């Protein structure tokens, strides 16, 4: 395992982990039943489309310790790490325990509160809000389907490129085994039918993500699967030419 420490990372001044941050404009993930599920650490919880289709959300895994697939993601991180849509904070906490510079952001008050209780730094912000360290992060994470944030993958990739340092790394989790490019409006619902506010969302397989990335000036550096999950790592800017053998 390569230990990429802060000595090789762009210096990012992280905020006080207990600030009074302004509430984000998008409060869909802040409302029950999502907050209730995070409070209990268990589901069932779903994303529901207008046609009634349900996508189960893995609340128990999100609220547990980082698993082997998560740790493989964290092993690949470089420099200071921004976890976008950090949820209840398992990745932020794991990186913090490793002594890494990390910040989680999430629009859910319950998610940020749970992350802070783990002793990990987090802010209640949307990725599209002003953020600390813009243009200096070494790695940005979009895990647990967070490539869907905002329902516009192109806009999210453009925002990520402004957050990262030149040549920075983006690691995204995609829908396994599918060339899927779906943009819909959904809301969070539980087994009792309680619902949150509708919001735009996207679901991408790796081929679709790579198409968006290429058009936005990113290049793929790795693709892998672990624990039944699928991931891709992208680097901002054009590929670095291989050294000449001459």
In short:
This protein has 246 residues and is an alpha/beta fold.
Outline the structure in words:
This protein is α/β, with parallel strands linked by helices and 246 residues long. It has a seven-stranded mixed beta sheet, with helices on both faces. It has a four-stranded antiparallel beta sheet with strand order 2-1-8-9. Strand 1 and strand 2 form a beta hairpin. It is globular, with a radius of gyration of 17 Å. The N terminus is likely disordered.
Strand order of the largest sheet: 5-4-3-6-7-11-10
Sequence of secondary-structure elements? HEEHHEHEHEEHEEEHEE
The strand count comes to 11
**Main pleated-sheet profile:** 7 strands, mixed
- Binned, the helix content reads 10-25%
Helix/strand-derived category reads alpha/beta
Shape: globular
Distance, first to last CA: 32 Å
Strand content is 25-35%
User: Count the helices. How many?
Assistant: 7
Radius of gyration: 17 Å
Unreliable segments of 5+ consecutive residues: 1-11, 15-27
How would you state the average pLDDT, rounded? 88
Keywords, separated by commas or semicolons:
246 residues; 4-stranded antiparallel beta sheet; 7 helices; 11 strands; disordered N terminus
Question: How are the secondary structure elements laid out?
Answer:
Blueprint lengths: L33 H7 L4 E5 L4 E3 L2 H4 L5 H9 L4 E4 L5 H8 L4 E5 L2 H9 L4 E3 L12 E6 L10 H11 E11 L6 E10 L8 E6 L1 H10 L2 E9 L2 E8 L10
Parallel strand pairs: 3-4, 3-6, 4-5, 6-7
Antiparallel strand pairs: 1-2, 1-8, 7-11, 8-9, 10-11
Helix pairs in contact: 1-5
